Amino acid sequence: MKNLYSKSLLRFVEKYSTLNEDEIFKLLKIFEYRFFENKSHIISPLEEKSTIFFICSGLIRYYYLADDGKEWNKAFISENMMSTSFSTDFLGSASPFGIQAMEDTALLIADYTNFEALYDHHPMIERFGRKLIELILISKMNRERSFLKNNAKTRYKEFILQNPNLVTRIPKYHLASYLGITESSLSRLAVDIK
């Protein structure tokens, strides 16, 4: 199973960096295959663990847990995408968000420290790491821009255009939270857009 998914991971990496055989071997060596059932946590809020992972199959959500216990969705990531969780390594404290499977989800996952340790001797892996961080930063900046510039209807339309395969996979209350609106507001928007 890991071998099949490793090929998918390498196809993703090759979009941003060209690795030689030694770099491929070292990169794949740090990843392990893990399966998470629907609704199980990959990283719990406030957990002090930095990871890098490739989603082989399934769907996950990043979410913030407010002081009142309410959850606010930050991002949705699906198969053939890569992401990270940063905690004490970058923030100096535990991560303020959790990562949860929204479907049965298979991941290739590695400790971020092990990934970063490859940088010193493998510049193309370092380049890939930089490109990955750039992708995450651009995504974050686009989301922030959308919240500052657009109303809820425009944010919803953008989400549908950018993620047509996710709309039916995400429960309405999670999508509403991601858009910063109530579930009833999302239902009205969905009727208006049809």
Shape type: globular
Q: Please tally the β strands and state the result.
A: 8
Strand fraction equals 15-25%
CATH-defined fold name of the largest domain: Jelly Rolls
CATH architecture of the largest domain: Sandwich
Strand order of the largest sheet: 1-8-3-6
CATH class of the largest domain: Mainly Beta
Helix coverage percent: 40-55%
Whole-number average pLDDT? 90
Q: Radius of gyration in whole Å, from Cα?
A: 18 Å
Major sheet, described briefly? Answer: 4 strands, antiparallel
User: What structural class results from the helix and strand content?
Assistant: alpha+beta
Low-confidence stretches at least 5 residues in length (pLDDT < 50)? none
- CATH superfamily name of the largest domain? Jelly Rolls
Number of contiguous helices: 8
Spatial separation of the terminal alpha carbons: 41 Å
Compressed to H and E, one letter per element, the order equals HHEEEEEEHEEHHHHH
